[in-house]
Amino acid sequence: MVSRKLAEPSPSTVARANRKRLAHEEGARAMADFEQRATAIRKNMARLRELREAKEAQEAVALAALPDVSKRRKPPSR
Asked: CB-hemisphere CA count at 13 Å for 10?
């Protein structure tokens, strides 16, 4: 059996190669888009975490400044 190599690829071979190339390019674009969105989500989560922690710290300071009502005793009623 002698294998022969064609000088020009068949139209189906060219079409298959084009489909593979386009799929590869689309996959690369999709991965880049995914990474970009993931980065944006992580940045937003970090920003929101900082805001929440600052609010909680501010609330803790405000609670510490209030007088402790539970230690006060009511005068006995007669």
From this structure: 4
